[in-house]
Amino acid sequence: MELLNCTSPAMILERSASVLGCSILDQKLALHLDEHDALQNLRQHFLVPKVKDLPYTDLSYVDEKEECVYLAGNSLGLQPKHVKTYINEELDKWHKMGVHGHFEGSRPWALGDECIVDLMANVVGARVEEVALMNALTVNLHLLLLSFYKPTSSRHKILIEAKAFPSDHYAVESQIQLRGQDPKKSMLLMHPREGEETLRMEDIISMIEKEGDSIAVILFSGVQYYTGQLFDMPAITKAGHKKGCFVGFDLAHAVGNAELYLHDWEVDFACWCTYKYMNSGAGSLAGAFIHEKHAKTIQPVLIGWWGHEMKTRFLMDNQLQLSPGINGYRISNPSILLVCALQASLEIFNQTSMKALRKKSVLLTGYLECLIKQCYTKDESDPQKPYVKIITPSNVEERGCQLSLAFSVPIKTVYKELEKRGVACDMREPNVLRIAPVPLYNSFSDVYRFINILGCALTASQKEQA
Q1: Residue 4 has pLDDT above 50, yes or no
Q2: Which of 11, 77, 188, 259 is deepest in the core (most CB within 10 A)?
Q3: Which proteins does it associate with, and in what oligomeric form (predicted)?
């Protein structure tokens, strides 16, 4: 689509609608965008739930044969079709081979994670030896902080978002306490300016410059889970390093969503889950990264068998030969069933590139933004009309695919009405719906359907209030 050379999604949409002789609000535009979507074939690799199978759908509102409007990939990605096939292959191998499955077949159990780590490294912009697939996100965060957080009397603080995901907050707080420090003094919380929802980059850099000499570790999310803000990770890393800090990121909402170049940005460490945009199922295998510059200088505090070099691991002589870098942090072999689920998703990512996915994502989320602003902006002439406020940054460089929407009517009522009508999205207290059109499998028609259903939900919410 030649119009994609324009920088503004709104401009692309306006020009496309003009060529078609229709309004941006016309379904004709959504169908046109889908028809010219170079990545549209990727959707066929996923299983999209039918509205009749969702637990809270009211079939008096929807056609039970329809697929739901699935906009919750920021919470749990859709199931790739090959997951069941791959898991069944391993169950069959277990049945037929028993213990021999550890080193036989295309996916040996003892090497299962290593069979797909190159695909994961591509997604996060890292070298293969800098990435490991292991554990769950917060377990990996704890393991990494044990190595990178070495407080001294003068450098003992960890800089983190004030509204970080609770798990990160708890991990940081407990790591500070574990080292005999006081979280009230050593946990440096970064707040937005009064009256604002998101953090300004100039404020983050200013905080690092001001407090950097006392900061041991900077830990930010790549994409903020509540607001959907995409942080400038290379700028934060550069500023942190300038002050002598280690810089790490929780990439739970960034991996598979934003372009990442962890090696080139010289990020010190990172960790992520794979059940959101990476579509590998609830409780799936997580990832971790340590830059190669630390391979010989940073070592794990807690060590397990799987951190021993593979070539001598099975000598069983209890003489540790620690794998360098992140591979030394592996505690034990991961479940092959979790490997199967992640492999099925990574193979789909391998059919395209994060650059291509990001290009579609900018337009797809821009389309959602334009329709919300056209249809549900606050109307000063009608103060009773429900409206929507987007708290995610409008600058496409400062967001991924998620838009966080705040409402003038009770959020739980709106959410309930959307569920009745076959929309799967995500509600977060106190007052936000997180809507994530995922470029791997969502279409422009999904966004169009959501906008129309949202109108019905708002009307129903208003009637319930009356």
Answers
A1: no
A2: 77
A3: Homodimer.
Q: What is the three-class DSSP state of 293?
A: helix
pLDDT on residue 454: 97
Digit-coded pLDDT (tens) for 15-48 = 999 999 999 999 999 999 999 999 999 999 999 9
What pTM was computed for the model?
Answer: 0.96
- Tell whether residue 277 is among the known ligand binding residues: no
Judge whether 250 is annotated as a binding position. Answer: yes
Predicted local confidence at residue 465, as pLDDT: 67
Residue 382: its pLDDT value, please? 82
Q: 26 a known binding residue?
A: no
Ligand-binding site membership of 167 (annotated): yes
Let me know if 65 is exposed, middle or buried by CB neighbors in 10 A (0-12, 13-18, 19+).
exposed
Look at strands 269-272 and 432-435 and give their pairing: unpaired
426 is in an annotated binding site: no
Known binder of ligand: residue 275? yes
Q: Is 297 annotated as a binding residue?
A: no
Tell me: is residue 253 an annotated ligand-binding position: yes
Would the annotation count 80 as a binding residue? no
